[in-house]
Automatic annotation (TrEMBL):
Protein name per Swiss-Prot or TrEMBL: Fur family transcriptional regulator, ferric uptake regulator
Chain residues that bind Zn(2+): 84, 87, 121, 124
Keyword Nucleotide-binding set for record: no
SUPFAM superfamilies xrefs: Winged helix' DNA-binding domain
Needed co-factor(s): Zn(2+); Mn(2+); Fe(2+)
Length: 125
């Protein structure tokens, strides 16, 4: 059984950054938000703690086509994402309009899908 990593001020600040942002964050975004609580926090510390939070299944990775991976709180219902063309921030879209899915060729079976929407967020319009 793996040993759970201990909680630190840095890890608490990184967790808080994800909870307050309420959207998927890159390592850099998490660093900027967490530094508001812990002065001097380093990017290496964010990388290390994000890895631990992934192992603990507190975070999950969001693979962004053609961009860096983002991370969000784990355990959410199936949903999709919107990426702003201007600022690059990633936002969660509630639900899924593709429940029926595309018509597949005979004999094919789908195991999942990805769907990203691109445009401009309210801060960039």
């Amino acid at each position: 059984m793996p040993v759970q990593a201990r909680n630190t001020r840095q890890k608490d600040a990184i967790r808080s950054a994800f909870m307050k942002a309420d959207r998927p964050l890159s390592h850099d975004e998490a660093l900027t938000l967490a530094q508001a609580e812990v002065d001097g926090l380093s990017l290496a510390t964010v990388y290390r703690n994000v890895t631990t939070l992934l192992e603990e299944k507190w975070l999950t990775a969001v693979e962004v086509p053609g961009d860096t991976t983002r991370y969000e709180l784990a355990g959410k219902a199936h949903h999709h994402h919107f990426q702003c063309n201007e600022c690059g921030k990633l936002f969660e879209l509630e639900g899924c309009g593709m429940q029926a899915g595309p018509k597949l060729p005979q004999g094919f079976r789908s195991t999942g899908h990805e769907f990203f929407v691109y445009g401009f967020c309210d801060a960039c319009t």
